Amino acid sequence: MRGLLRRGIRTLDTQSVYAKWAENYPAQAHNALMEVEQDALLSLLPDVCGKQVLDLGCGSGRYTRVLRKSGAGFAFGVDLSRAMLRAGHAVHAGHVAQADWLAIPFPADTFDVIVSGLTIGHVYDLTAALAEAARVLKVDGALLYSSFHPLGHSLGWQRTFQTSDGEAFAVESYAHLIADHFAAAQAAQLRLVALHEPRLKQGEAPVALVARLEKSIDGNE
Q1: In what order do the strands lie in the sheet with 158-162?
Q2: pLDDT band per the 50, 70, 90 thresholds, residue 93
Q3: CATH code at 187?
Q4: Sheet of 74-79: strands edge to edge?
Q5: Domain assignment present for 220
Q6: Is residue 221 part of a domain?
Q7: Which of 42, 142, 165, 204 is 20 to 30 A away from residue 136, measured at CA?
Q8: For residues 204-221, b (16+ Cβ closer than 10 Å) or e, as one string?
Q9: Which residues on adjacent β-strands are paired with residue 170?
Q10: What is the pLDDT of residues 98-131, one digit of tens each?
Q11: Whether 12 contacts 172, CB under 8 Å
């Protein structure tokens, strides 16, 4: 199934994969893994009504749409892939920028809430990624993000898609261990206040890692 974790598929870099995938990439959770990931992330979402919110790695606008429906005062999207931004133009309503997670094009202390769905695993340097997100997050703000569970990487799983002519590809990603998330949060002076590990079925291995971090004036103390 498109988007699920599989083994033994040719891997391409992020830009190349999403350039091929963008045309047919839905702006909603489109498989079982994404459904449980989204449920877990939204269970941690604070009230965004009237808030300044960033969808980091917004793609075709899955979380942008949710944030706007939840009453966000301003929801902006940032993504590395121009093709994905174009695919979601109707959702984004022009409030987007093409940019790398490690160079978010906003000044410090801009956003009340940052949400990122299944994107941070594409970033090699987790510590730098959380530090940059913390930079643009206001004091008392919240950062929520999800990633494929590192256990899946150890089992050889990959995130894949299939082109219209039947050719399958996997997207380049990095396995950040749970300990890495705690260490990166501490280095960024963010408090990791919740960590969920959703499963497709009870008793099965977790398929995603979902975190909520908060920025306080005292850092992570």
Answers
A1: 5-6, 158-162, 168-171, 11-12
A2: confident
A3: 3.40.50.150
A4: 96-98, 74-79, 52-56, 111-116, 137-148, 208-214, 191-196
A5: no
A6: no
A7: 42
A8: eebbbbbbbbbbeeeebe
A9: 11, 160
A10: 999 999 999 999 999 999 999 999 999 999 999 9
A11: yes
